[in-house]
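Section 3.1: Structural characterization of target chains.
Under the original work plan, the team committed to producing a structural model for every single-chain target entering the pipeline before any wet-lab resources were allocated. The record below documents one such target. The sequence was received from the expression subgroup and is listed exactly as submitted; it comprises 378 residues.
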Amino acid sequence: MLPPRTTRTIHIRGLALGGPSPVAVQSMAATRTQDIPATVRQVKLLEAAGADLVRVAVDSKADVEALAEIRRQTKALLSVDLQENYRLAELVAPHVDKLRYNPGHLHHHEKERSTQSKVAYLVGVARAHGLALRIGVNAGSLAPEYEQRFGDDHVAALVQCAVDHCAMVDELGFTDYVVSIKDSDPRLVIDANQRFAAARPDVPVHLGVTEAGMPPDGIIKTRIAFEQLLSRGIGDTLRVSLTVPFDDKGLEIAVGREILEDVAAGRFRSVPPRFFEGLNIISCPSCSRVENERFVELAQEVKQMTAYAKEYDLTIAVMGCRVNGPGETDDADLGLWCGPKHVNLKRGPEDLGAFTYDQILPALRRELDSLIAAQTAG
């Protein structure tokens, strides 16, 4: 059995989360929300795979209109990812069961308003519509104030951001909320969630490793984090993020269930030797923000093309959109983030230009060879 958890029980409509409730497994539609047939098909695919909750991203009023129709075509529990436009909350609220906001995105709009007033608005919408709330802290989009306060202690900055937002919500008397603290490095995910659970053992936790990448590496990274946290009684819901084709999206649910069963049975899998050494490719799982369906294919091509560099300690990040891509590639040695017709290439935080989908692999190889030469010389 999984060890007991100390978190309170909250409700997402009829789904109990936290405390003695089973750990819920969820995923996110990897489709453009405005493509209603594709999004409905993926929601139903995930539901058939056993998803307890499905998340959909909304970033415009056109997305909201599509969401309303999606809601009419499915009875699945839906969570909405508000992205950078938190003011859409009141428009999407009638069509969903849970709101997710990123504290790191609240400063983008209405800069004259305080963070506290924006959180109060979100809580007010959730309360009025009987919705649950997720405070989703992401390592790639941390609010600047926390980066300034904590400098190189990135984990402390993430945890403090989560704790501060819990306090804001608590002051408003709202309790139906969960917290997630995510990064692409499972070791950071373990550290941050352990620190948060020590600070707020009452708050339900959503587990995830962002941009885990393609199987099998993405599954291994996720398993590393989840095994360590679930075995310590941390984690009330989880999402496995994998870069896979549309029709394979149910694999995220299957892997999540398998990890839960293994931890409950005491079955733990060892990490392959030198797993954290050598070339590390991270990629996002795709979602409605992706503007070119070639993203998943590109991620697979990058993995194949760079296989010759597997012995070098370098990180390549492949991101699917302009929302998270620019920031979440800053810490990689080489980063790619995809637009409708071009892929933007970066070397660390430095922009190297935009390339067509046919040009990007040769450009990436040139930069990779340059880094290998420098590493070898060093």
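The two ends are 50 Å apart (CA to CA).
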